[in-house]
User: What shape does this take?
Amino acid sequence: MDISEIKALTFDVFGTVVDWRSSITREGRRLGEARGIDVDWSTFADDWRAGYGPSMSRVREGELPWTNIDALHRMVLDELLEKYGITGLTEEEKDDFNKAWHRLAPWPDSVSGLTRLKKRFVLATLSNGNVALLTNMAKNAGLPWDCILSAELFKHYKPDPETYLGAASLLGLEPGEVMMVAAHQNDLRSAQKAGLKAAFVPRPDEFGPQREVDTTPDPAFDFVASSFEELATMLGV
Amino acid sequence: MDISEIKALTFDVFGTVVDWRSSITREGRRLGEARGIDVDWSTFADDWRAGYGPSMSRVREGELPWTNIDALHRMVLDELLEKYGITGLTEEEKDDFNKAWHRLAPWPDSVSGLTRLKKRFVLATLSNGNVALLTNMAKNAGLPWDCILSAELFKHYKPDPETYLGAASLLGLEPGEVMMVAAHQNDLRSAQKAGLKAAFVPRPDEFGPQREVDTTPDPAFDFVASSFEELATMLGV
Assistant: This one.
């Protein structure tokens, strides 16, 4: 493939750029210690994340009107607090814990790899996370995006084609001039169907040490790299 | 006013952050020298800018469907090329000249002032320029935005209230937690009407040395500063 065709890279964020599981577990433990709540916070994190897909599907299928991720995270959180029998949190504490998703920590190679890639390409998020979440996360973690793009701007969640095509259009580019970077093969296949290029950066630890992730890449992907640093090298930066 | 209420600053861009007149004049002269076109490029720049408001009004009033600034700039450019009797430019040359708006140079205090302000506030554009234009401009000029917000995201041009309210909403903030920063009093008055705070940073040279700009500030504005550096100092950064 001719790399000079690629003008912009769009990134999945949760799992691809940031390690949501460790971050949510850490913030849960901190809250638990402060408030004397004894639960397995890594399982809590897994449950919170597991509620995310189904809640987005309710939006994608029209069962819910457009609802952004902050609000969906909060719906799932409220259910989990009940399920885990956690009571007595103030509204402020619940809101702050919900905003833990704005403070997720990057994988070790994320900031350095993005900083290299930014020299040559326009770098944008293309996440189901809402604009405020992605903006606050970038500020907190030092992620050097050129532009924050989000499903929220299109009122469609990935993998709806409106998200990939909408991102290319806002960047003033043809779909084939944009490459989606993600740890999730489904996201990349949908991006390719919309005409984007695809780089697979598997994150085998995304779901913790117990859960195995199939990282065998779809042969249709344009690039497969083990880190953003390796991707930068492959792209000649 | 309690500065701690302000969480984000949204910036008008053309004229407030960047000096469109000098930049367009410079690029016009370069094109003119390359192609042997002898016109007064600063007047050409003024005419190009003068066509911008009326073309946006046609969109705001529904005479044109939603059309982004790249396309409006191009409509005005094509009219001006005819008016000035400039012929023989290739499509590539015209497109490149139109994209001079993606390469506008910042005022001398813009990058340093924004860099200081970014330490404390979320910084976003809130411009009628389209997302690609603002993203490319930031990359080219080193403008350290946290987030690119544009009229294009709301399909409404400033001063429609949808732009100011939409920006606050995407940032996850109340209108009163956002302060609009602009060199144009009309923009600031409209932002205040929508509930935002307002900082006036007059740019007396925006329209060149011949045209006087009334920089007497509306007493309703929350801050008046002569540069982004001075604004940073006023805001305690």
Observations:
- The mean pLDDT of chain B is 97.
- Residues 5 and 35 of chain B are 54 Å apart (CA to CA).
